[in-house]
C-alpha cells in the first residue's frame, strides 16, 4: 500500500486491537454480545463485532487510545459471519472526548469507503497524519442486506511533546546570548490551539526598525516581517502575509517559518506560501529577546494594543533551541505567568453543528412576559433561520438576512402589532458572533457581539406571552404563521434561554429537549476560500457548501479565474483576422504573468509587437562626467518579466537608439573606457551602440567604416564642436530591452547631447508556430511529468486527415489525463483524480480530419472540467461535491502515441500546458517518426485573405499576397485610393509599344497572357465620392472603336457607355433615379460575359442588362485605362469629350480593379516599374472607400452618409506620388501652366493649319471635329494608325 508520507513507514503500529474492552464506547449496542469492546479487527469475540441498537446516522463507535497518538491509517471489517457491515463512514478525532473535529481531505469533510462484506479488510492510509487521543467512527451507509456492523483498527505510533498553557498574562522571553543579533537565517516551528480569534504568538524587534511578529487576527494567522527600510523611506521593508482561517477552533495547528535572507517559506497545516520580503536588506536585526505568547514588557509603546495569546503551544523551536523544553527546565524567564502550567486548560464550550435539515428544540419558561435569548453562531451563508418560537398570541423569528441579524415579532392581541429590528453587517464571515435579544412589555433590544453602544432598541407598545418552546437552526412543522426561512447551516454554542446556559450534553443524552440531524460536540465549518482556489487575483466568496470566484477585472475567466481571456501574442490576434491596433496580450496564458497592453502592427508579411517606454525623444543631457554619470532609467508599459516573455518567444527584436552630440564623446572607441553604457535585460552592462553587436565597442559608422573621423568608431567620439549623430538599431534580443542609460561626457564647456531610445519592437511568435508533424502511428514525443494537481489547462492546434488518434497522455498510479481524437467528428478529454474516470466529449457538425487547423482547449480544476473545440463547441462537467481533487501523475508526458494507444497522424502546434509552451520542434529534431514544423497553413488561414488575395505558405505561418488586387494590408482589406484634383488623370497602358508582353498582367478570356487582347468578359469594380458633375470616372480605350466609359452626367446620375461594335450608337445604361455626386462614397461593380452585363451599385441588388442581338461580343484590342480624365490619341466618342471631360473628375477614387489590373494601386504603391503614369496631383487617400456590399438599411444608419465617414473624410493618410507637385508651389505652377497653355494653343492652331493644307489630317478627322466647341474635342482623333505615324513626343497634346 502506497503511503503519501515516506516518513510514516516507521509509524504503523496497531493502536486499537491491543487496548482493553473499556477503551471502546459507543452510542448504543444491540445487546451485550454486540458491545463496542468486540469491535477489534479480525477478532470473533461476542457476536463478532459491534452493532448499535438503532440503524441511523446518530450512531458512533469511539476508541480511547489512552493518550495522544500519531495516527497514520485506518482499517475496517464487517461483523463476523453476518450480513452487517458499514459501507461508508466518517472519522472524528479529539484530545478530550469533546469538541470533535472531522477528518478533512481535499478541502472536504471526508467520507471513507468501507466494506462490501463481513471478512475483507479495507485499509485507508491517511493523506495526512493526525494527532489525537480519541477517535470516533460515524457510519454513514451500511449493508442493504443487514445492519450496521463494524470491527476496526487504527495504525500509528506514540506521540509526545512538551506543551505550555498561556493564560493571556504570561509571556515567555527568549533572551539572546548577545545584545544585538544580526540573523541571516531563521527556522521557527510550533503548534498552537486556541478558542480566541486574536493574540500575539511571537514577537521580536530591533532598534533599527527590524521586527518579526506572528499573530492571530480574526482567527487568521498573520506573519509580519521587516528586514529594514532605508533612511529616506523610499524603500520600505514591511511585509505582511496571511494564512489559514478559523484557527480559533480549539484544535492543534502547526506552523513553520523558514527564512534565508529575503526568501521565506511560511507553512501552516501543510499549506506552504513562498514569498520574498520587501526592501533590499537580508539580515533580521533583533535586540535582546524574542517573546512567545505576547508582546515583551520592554516593547515599544507603538507595539502596544495587541492581545496576548490565550491557549496552548507545544514543540516550540527557534533555530535549533527547544523553547518548551527550556521552559520546563526553568532555563527561560517565565516570571510573567501567574501559574505556569504544562497541561492545556480545555474550553468548556459545547458547539452544535446544523445542516439544512437540522433543528434543535429547547424548552423555556411558558406564560412569561419576557423573552431573553442569547447564543453565538458562525456561518458562511448570508441567510438562515437562527431561532423560531410560537408565542401564546403570535410568533418570534430571529433570522440572518444578507449578513444581518433580523428580528420579527408578530403579536395578534386586540390589534396586530409587528416589531422588526435588525443589526450587524457581514456576519456571514465564518467568525463567531454573539446575538442577545431581550423583549418585554413595550420594549425590545437586539445586541450583536456585545456592542451595547450599537444595540438596537424599540419602544413599540407590545404584550408578549411565551409558550416555552424554542426551535434553533430550523423549523419544519406546519404552522399558520411559518417563518420566512426554514433552516440554517452553521454552528451555534453558548445557547442561553431565559438567561440560563443550555446543557447540550443533557440534550445529547436525551434528558433535555430534542433535536434532528444536529451534530453535537463539533463544529464542522470549512473555509473553502483558504487556501484560495481563485487564481490571478480572483475574489473568492462562499456558502456553506461551495465557493465561487469573481473574475471581473482580472483578465481571466473560468470557475477559478484560471484561463486568460486574451491571446498570447500579436501573431495570434492576426490569425484571428484582426488588424493593426492596441491589444492586451498574455504570453503565458494561465501562468503567473498578468496581461498587458502592446501595440500590434500587422504588415503584409510580419507582425510587430511594440512596447513603449517612458523616455522622451531627444532627451537633453548635461552636466555628466565619467565620475558622475547621468543615469536615465527607462520604465516600460509592461513589467520586465512580461517584456522578457515577449522577447523570448519572438523571432527577432530590435530597439532604436540615437545619441546626438556636440563636444560629447560616446564610447571613446576603439579600446578606451566608454563614457556611456547601457543596461539591458538582467541589468547587464553593454558597451556597444545601435548598429553594432555584442562585444564590439563600436557604433554603426564604425561597422560600416564611414565615421566622420576614421580614427574613431563613433561619430561623437571625434569630439567635434558641430552636431553629430550616432544612431542605429540594437538587435541582440537577449540583451533587450534597454532599461537604463548612463551618459558620462556632457560637463565640459560647450558639451551637449540628446538621447533617444525608441520602443522595443519584436517580430513573430515562435511559440505560436512551434509545431511537429507525426508521420507514423507509433511516433511520439515525450516530456517531463505534467504538474497540474489542482488546476490544469491544455491548449493546442491540430490538423489531420486521419479519423482518430491520441493527442497526449500522462499517467499516474491510477490517475491519468488524456486528450484524444475519438472519431472524425469528436474530441474527448478524459481524466481520473481518484474518483473514477471522467470523460468529456465535444462533437463537431463537420469533419475534423479535413487537414485544417482546429483549436482544442481543456481545463480541469477543483470546480469543474471544460473541453472546448474551435472556440465554439463546449462541454462543462461540474466536479463532484465531495471527492479527490488532486491529480497525481508520475509517468512522462507523451505527445502522440503512448501505451499502446492509437497514435496520432498529423500536426500539433502551439501546445501549452498551464501557460508553458512545449518545444515540440526541438524535441522532434531528435525523434524518429516526428518532423519539426508543419506545412499547409493556407488550408486553414487562407479564408482570411480577402478580395482575391492569395495565401502564401511560410514555414512559420502564412501571408496574404495582395499583388493582383486593388487592396493592401495584411489581409488585403485596406482600400488603396486617391484624391484627384481638377485636371488630374491616371493612365494605365495595357499594350505599351516598348514593354515586353511577357510582363503584362492582363488575362485574355482563355487565361493566357498576350499582347493582342480581345475580351469577351471583363470585371470592373471601384468606389468613388465626388460633389462635382459632369465628369468621367473610368474610361477604357482600344485600338479599335471599342470602349467602355463610366461617367456622371450633369445632374449627378450615373451612365455606363459600352461600344463593342455592331451598333450605330454605344449601348448606354442610365441610372436616372439617384444623384451620386452628393459627396458620399458609392461603390460600382460591373461584370460582363459576352452580351450580359451585371451591374451592382452600392448595397442594392445586382441588375442584369443585355446587349442587342446585333452587338458584337468582343472588346477588341484594349489599349489604355483612364481615371479622372481622358487624354487619348485614338478613336474616341466625341460625346464624352464634349460633355464630360472638362474640367475633369474632382474627388476620390478607391479600390479600382479591372480584371487582374489595379491601376490606382500600381500608381500609388508599386515597388516595380508599372505601365502607369499620372498627370496632375494625386494624393493617396481612402476618402472614396466604401464597403462592397451590405444589407439594406435605414438612412439613419446608412454608412454612405458623411457623418459615418467621420475623420476619414476627405483624407486619411496623405501621400503624394512622385509625379505630383507640392501645394506650396501651386501658385508658381499655376502661372507657368497658363504660359505653357497659351504656347500650346498657338502650336495647335499652326499644326492644324499645316495638316489641312497637306490633306493628311483632314481625311481622318473625327466627324464631330468641325462642330467641337472646345480644344479637347478638336485635337483628339480616331485614326487607329495615328499614334504610329507621328513622333512619340506629339502623342500627348493636353496638359
Brief overview:
The protein is mainly beta and 1295 residues long. Helices cover 8% and strands 39% of the residues.
Tell me about this structure.
Helices cover 8% and strands 39% of the residues. With 1295 residues, the chain is mostly beta strands. The strands form 15 sheets. Strands 24, 25, 26, 27, 28, 29, 30, 31, 32, 33, 34, 35 and 36 form a 13-stranded antiparallel sheet that branches. Strands 1, 2, 3, 4, 5, 8, 9 and 10 form an 8-stranded antiparallel sheet that branches. Strands 52, 54, 59, 60, 61, 63, 64 and 65 form an 8-stranded antiparallel sheet that branches. A hairpin with a 2-residue loop joins strand 26 and strand 27 (394-401). The radius of gyration is 44 Å and the shape is elongated. Mean pLDDT is 85; it is low at 1-7, 299-303, 993-1011, 1188-1227 and 1249-1295.
List the helices and strands and how they pair.
Layout (H helix, E strand, L loop, with lengths): L12 E2 L9 E3 L34 E17 L8 E9 L6 E2 L1 E2 L2 E2 L1 E3 L8 E21 L8 E8 L4 E5 L4 E12 L1 E9 L5 E7 L5 E7 L2 E7 L12 E5 L9 E8 L2 E6 L2 E6 L7 E9 L17 E9 L2 E2 H6 L23 E15 L4 E8 L5 E8 L2 E8 L2 E9 L3 E8 L9 E8 L2 E6 L7 E3 L8 E6 L17 E8 L2 E2 L2 H5 L5 E7 L18 E4 L4 E4 L5 E2 L5 E2 L5 H5 L6 E5 L10 E7 L4 E5 L7 E3 L8 E4 L6 H10 L2 E11 L14 E3 L5 E2 L13 H5 L19 E7 L9 E4 L8 E12 L2 H4 L1 E4 L5 E4 L7 E9 L5 E7 L4 E8 L2 E7 L5 E6 L10 E8 L2 E6 L3 E6 L14 E4 L9 E8 L2 E2 L2 H5 L5 E3 L5 H4 L8 E5 L2 E5 L5 E2 L5 E2 L1 E4 L4 E5 L27 E10 ...
Antiparallel strand pairs: 1-10, 2-3, 3-9, 3-10, 4-5, 4-8, 4-9, 6-7, 11-22, 12-21, 13-18, 13-22, 14-15, 14-21, 15-16, 16-17, 18-19, 19-20, 22-23, 24-33, 24-34, 24-36, 25-30, 25-34, 26-27, 26-33, 27-28, 28-29, 30-31, 31-32, 34-35, 37-38, 39-40, 41-42, 42-43, 43-51, 44-51, 45-50, 46-49, 46-51, ...
Amino acid at each position: 500500500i502506497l503511503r503519501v508520507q515516506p516518513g510514516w513507514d516507521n509509524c504503523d503500529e496497531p493502536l486499537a486491537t491491543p487496548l482493553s474492552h473499556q477503551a471502546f464506547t459507543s452510542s448504543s449496542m444491540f445487546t451485550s454480545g454486540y458491545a463496542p469492546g468486540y469491535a477489534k479487527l479480525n477478532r470473533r469475540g461476542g457476536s463478532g463485532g459491534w452493532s448499535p441498537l438503532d440503524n441511523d446516522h446518530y450512531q458512533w463507535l469511539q476508541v480511547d487510545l489512552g493518550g495522544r497518538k500519531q495516527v497514520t491509517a485506518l482499517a475496517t471489517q464487517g461483523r463476523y459471519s453476518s450480513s452487517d457491515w458499514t459501507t461508508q463512514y466518517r472519522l472524528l478525532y479529539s484530545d478530550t472526548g469533546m469538541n470533535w473535529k472531522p477528518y478533512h481531505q481535499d478541502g472536504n469533510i471526508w467520507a471513507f469507503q468501507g466494506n462490501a462484506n463481513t471478512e475483507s479488510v479495507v485499509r485507508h492510509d491517511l493523506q495526512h497524519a493526525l494527532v489525537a487521543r480519541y477517535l470516533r467512527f460515524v457510519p454513514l451507509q451500511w449493508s442493504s442486506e443487514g445492519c450496521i456492523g463494524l470491527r476496526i483498527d487504527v495504525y500509528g505510533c506514540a506521540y509526545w511533546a512538551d506543551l505550555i498553557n498561556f493564560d493571556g498574562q504570561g509571556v515567555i522571553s527568549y533572551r539572546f546570548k548577545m545584545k544585538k543579533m544580526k540573523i541571516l537565517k531563521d527556522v521557527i516551528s510550533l503548534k498552537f490551539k486556541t478558542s480566541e480569534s486574536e493574540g500575539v504568538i511571537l514577537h521580536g524587534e530591533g532598534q533599527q526598525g527590524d521586527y518579526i511578529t506572528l499573530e492571530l487576527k480574526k482567527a487568521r494567522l498573520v506573519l509580519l516581517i521587516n528586514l529594514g527600510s532605508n533612511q529616506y523611506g523610499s524603500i520600505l521593508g514591511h511585509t505582511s502575509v496571511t494564512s489559514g482561517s478559523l484557527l480559533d477552533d480549539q484544535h492543534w495547528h502547526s506552523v513553520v517559518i523558514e527564512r534565508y535572507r529575503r526568501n521565506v517559506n511560511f507553512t501552516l497545516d501543510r499549506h506552504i506560501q513562498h514569498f520574498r520580503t520587501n526592501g533590499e536588506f537580508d539580515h533580521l536585526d533583533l535586540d535582546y529577546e524574542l517573546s512567545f505568547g505576547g508582546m515583551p514588557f520592554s516593547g515599544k509603546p507603538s507595539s502596544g494594543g495587541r492581545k496576548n495569546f490565550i491557549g496552548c503551544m507545544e514543540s516550540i523551536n527557534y533555530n535549533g533551541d527547544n523553547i518548551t523544553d527550556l521552559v520546563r527546565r526553568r532555563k527561560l524567564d517565565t516570571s510573567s505567568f501567574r501559574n505556569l502550567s504544562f497541561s492545556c486548560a480545555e474550553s468548556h464550550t459545547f458547539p452544535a453543528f446544523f445542516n439544512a435539515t437540522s433543528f434543535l428544540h429547547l424548552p423555556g419558561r411558558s406564560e412569561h412576559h419576557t423573552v431573553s435569548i442569547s447564543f453565538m453562531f458562525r456561518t458562511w451563508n448570508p441567510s438562515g433561520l437562527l431561532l423560531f418560537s410560537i408565542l401564546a398570541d403570535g410568533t418570534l423569528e430571529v433570522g440572518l438576512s444578507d449578513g444581518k441579524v433580523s428580528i420579527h415579532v408578530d403579536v395578534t392581541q386586540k390589534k396586530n402589532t409587528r416589531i422588526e429590528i435588525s443589526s450587524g453587517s457581514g456576519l456571514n464571515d465564518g467568525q463567531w458572533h454573539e446575538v442577545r435579544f431581550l423583549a418585554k412589555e413595550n420594549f425590545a433590544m437586539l445586541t450583536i457581539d456585545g456592542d451595547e453602544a450599537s444595540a438596537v432598541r424599540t419602544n413599540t407598545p407590545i404584550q408578549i406571552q411565551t409558550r416555552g418552546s424554542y426551535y434553533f437552526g430550523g423549523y419544519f412543522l406546519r404552522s399558520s404563521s411559518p417563518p420566512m426561512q426554514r433552516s440554517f447551516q452553521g454552528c451555534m454554542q453558548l445557547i442561553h434561554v431565559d438567561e440560563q446556559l443550555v446543557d447540550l450534553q443533557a440534550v445529547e443524552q436525551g434528558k433535555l429537549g430534542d433535536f434532528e440531524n444536529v451534530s453535537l460536540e463539533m463544529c464542522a465549518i470549512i473555509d473553502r476560500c483558504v487556501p484560495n482556489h481563485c487564481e490571478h487575483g480572483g475574489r473568492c466568496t462562499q456558502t456553506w457548501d461551495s465557493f465561487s470566484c469573481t473574475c471581473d477585472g482580472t483578465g481571466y475567466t473560468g470557475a477559478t479565474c484560471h484561463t486568460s481571456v486574451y491571446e498570447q501574442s500579436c501573431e495570434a490576434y492576426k490569425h484571428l483576422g484582426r488588424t493593426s491596433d492596441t491589444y492586451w496580450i498574455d504570453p503565458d496564458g494561465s501562468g503567473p504573468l498578468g496581461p498587458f497592453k502592446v501595440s500590434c502592427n500587422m504588415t503584409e508579411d510580419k507582425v510587430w509587437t511594440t512596447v513603449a517606454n517612458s523616455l522622451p525623444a531627444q532627451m537633453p543631457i548635461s552636466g555628466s562626467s565619467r565620475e558622475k554619470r547621468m543615469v536615465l532609467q527607462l520604465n516600460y508599459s509592461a513589467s520586465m518579466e512580461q517584456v522578457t516573455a515577449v522577447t523570448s518567444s519572438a523571432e527577432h527584436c530590435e530597439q532604436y537608439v540615437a545619441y546626438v552630440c556636440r563636444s560629447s564623446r560616446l564610447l571613446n572607441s576603439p579600446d578606451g573606457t566608454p563614457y556611456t553604457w547601457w543596461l539591458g535585460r538582467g541589468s547587464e552592462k553593454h558597451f556597444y551602440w545601435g548598429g553594432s553587436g555584442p562585444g564590439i565597442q563600436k557604433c554603426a559608422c564604425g561597422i560600416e567604416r564611414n565615421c566622420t573621423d576614421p580614427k574613431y568608431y563613433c561619430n561623437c567620439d571625434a569630439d567635434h564642436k558641430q552636431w553629430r549623430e550616432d544612431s542605429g538599431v540594437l538587435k541582440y534580443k537577449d540583451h533587450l530591452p534597454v532599461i537604463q542609460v548612463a551618459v558620462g561626457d556632457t560637463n565640459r564647456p560647450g558639451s551637449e547631447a540628446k538621447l533617444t531610445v525608441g520602443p522595443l519592437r519584436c517580430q513573430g511568435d515562435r511559440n505560436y508556430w512551434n509545431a511537429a508533424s507525426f508521420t507514423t502511428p507509433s511516433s511520439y514525443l515525450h516530456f517531463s511529468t505534467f504538474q497540474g494537481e489542482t488546476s490544469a489547462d491544455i491548449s493546442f492546434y491540430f490538423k489531420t486527415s486521419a479519423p482518430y488518434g491520441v493527442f497526449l497522455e500522462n499517467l499516474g498510479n491510477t490517475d491519468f489525463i488524456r486528450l484524444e481524437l475519438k472519431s472524425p467528428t469528436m474530441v474527448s478529454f478524459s481524466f481520473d483524480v481518484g474518483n473514477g474516470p471522467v470523460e468529456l466529449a465535444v462533437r463537431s457538425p463537420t469533419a475534423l480530419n479535413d487537414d485544417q487547423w482546429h483549436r482544442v482547449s481543456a481545463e480541469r480544476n477543483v470546480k469543474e472540467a471544460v473541453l472546448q473545440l474551435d472556440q465554439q463547441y463546449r462541454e462543462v462537467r461540474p466536479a463532484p461535491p465531495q471527492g479527490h481533487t488532486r491529480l497525481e501523475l508520475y509517468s512522462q508526458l507523451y505527445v502522440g502515441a503512448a501505451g499502446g494507444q492509437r497514435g496520432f497522424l498529423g500536426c500539433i502546434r502551439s501546445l501549452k500546458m498551464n501557460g508553458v509552451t512545449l518545444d515540440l520542434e526541438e524535441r522532434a529534431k531528435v525523434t524518429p517518426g516526428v518532423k519539426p514544423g508543419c506545412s499547409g497553413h493556407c488550408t486553414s488561414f487562407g479564408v482570411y485573405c480577402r478580395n482575391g488575395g492569395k495565401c502564401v505558405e511560410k514555414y512559420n505561418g502564412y501571408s496574404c499576397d495582395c499583388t493582383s488586387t486593388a487592396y493592401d494590408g495584411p489581409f488585403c482589406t485596406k482600400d488603396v485610393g486617391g484624391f484627384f484634383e481638377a485636371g488630374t488623370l491616371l493612365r494605365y497602358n495595357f499594350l505599351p509599344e516598348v514593354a515586353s508582353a511577357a510582363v503584362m498582367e492582363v488575362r485574355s478570356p482563355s487565361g493566357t497572357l498576350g499582347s493582342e487582347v480581345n475580351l469577351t468578359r471583363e470585371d470592373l469594380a471601384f468606389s468613388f465620392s465626388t460633389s462635382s458633375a459632369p465628369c468621367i470616372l473610368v474610361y477604357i480605350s482600344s485600338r479599335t472603336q471599342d470602349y467602355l466609359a463610366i461617367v456622371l452626367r450633369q445632374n449627378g446620375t450615373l451612365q455606363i457607355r459600352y461600344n463593342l461594335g455592331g451598333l450605330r450608337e454605344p449601348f448606354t445604361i442610365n441610372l436616372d433615379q439617384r444623384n451620386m455626386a452628393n459627396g458620399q462614397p458609392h461603390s460600382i461593380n460591373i461584370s460582363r460575359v459576352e452580351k450580359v452585363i451585371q451591374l451592382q451599385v452600392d448595397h442594392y441588388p445586382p441588375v442584369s442588362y443585355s446587349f442587342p442581338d446585333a452587338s458584337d461580343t468582343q472588346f477588341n484590342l484594349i489599349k489604355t485605362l483612364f481615371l479622372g480624365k481622358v487624354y487619348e490619341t485614338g478613336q474616341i466618342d466625341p460625346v464624352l469629350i464634349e460633355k464630360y471631360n472638362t474640367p475633369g473628375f474632382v474627388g476620390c477614387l478607391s479600390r479600382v480593379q479591372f480584371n487582374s489590373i489595379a491601376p490606382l494601386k500600381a500608381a500609388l504603391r508599386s515597388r516595380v516599374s508599372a505601365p502607369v503614369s499620372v498627370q496632375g496631383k494625386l494624393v493617396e487617400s481612402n476618402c472614396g472607400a466604401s464597403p462592397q456590399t451590405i444589407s439594406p438599411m435605414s438612412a439613419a444608419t446608412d454608412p454612405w452618409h458623411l457623418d459615418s465617414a467621420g475623420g476619414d473624410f476627405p483624407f486619411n493618410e496623405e501621400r503624394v506620388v512622385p509625379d505630383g507637385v507640392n501645394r506650396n508651389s501651386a501658385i508658381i505652377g499655376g502661372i507657368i501652366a497658363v504660359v505653357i497653355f497659351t504656347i500650346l494653343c498657338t502650336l495647335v492652331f499652326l499644326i492644324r493649319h499645316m495638316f489641312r493644307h497637306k490633306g493628311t489630317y483632314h481625311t481622318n478627322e473625327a466627324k464631330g471635329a468641325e462642330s467641337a466647341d472646345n480644344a479637347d474635342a478638336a485635337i483628339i482623333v480616331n485614326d487607329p494608325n495615328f499614334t504610329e505615324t507621328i513622333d512619340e513626343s506629339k502623342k500627348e497634346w493636353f496638359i
